[in-house]
Amino acid sequence: MTDASAPPAEPSPTGAGAPPAPAYRVLTQYVRDLSFENPRAPESLRVEGKPAIDMGVEMSAQGRADGLFEVDIKLSVKASQGEQALFHVELVYGGLFQLQGVREQDIEPMLLVECPRYLFPFAREIVCKQTTDGGFYPPLLLEPIDFAAIYLARRQQQARMEGPVAGQA
Question: Which of 78, 90, 93, 147 could crosslink 35 through cysteines, CB 3.0-4.6 Å?
Fold first, then answer.
């Protein structure tokens, strides 16, 4: 478990009567689930060339009765060469967050963009260590993820699915 805090919010320029600036605090971080498969070891460790990497990212968030929020990032990384699987890593990495001064309409983007952005470097390190411990060299270093773009794409997809009902103008 790690105890960390987001950078403190800047003081409000309008003084004591203004609402606090939107901020979040990270109360704890944790591995919820971790799986590493290396089905063809040790032969998979002697592969020539770069493997094909297939990566999936999911974010989820839920409120709790105590007013805090649980945020999870699920990373699924598969490496293969041709038809042969080399390794598969699945990680669900989470954090417990407290939001302060966040408007109702900004809660979802805060939980699904800003909180995952904070958690990602820690999850990235775990995936890197798992591939290294699995015998792969060089270790897998995940590229940064644009959580805002993923969030917007998901919102657009939901809007298309919820589009106008047939027969209504």
Answer: 90
Across 101-147, where does the E strand assignment appear? none
Characterize the bridge pairing of strands 69-81 and 23-37. Answer: unpaired
Q: Which two tokens stand for residue 31?
A: 């591995």
Closest CA to 55 of 82, 74, 75: 75
88-112: pLDDT as tens digits: 999 999 999 999 989 999 999 999 9
Q: Which of 111, 125, 7, 16 is nearest to 68 (CA)?
A: 111
Residues 6+ apart with CB under 8 A from 105: none
Q: Which residue has the tokens 């290294």?
A: 132
Whether the upstream peptide bond of residue 121 has omega within 30° of 0, thus cis, is no
How many Å separate Cα 64 from the centre of its chain?
19
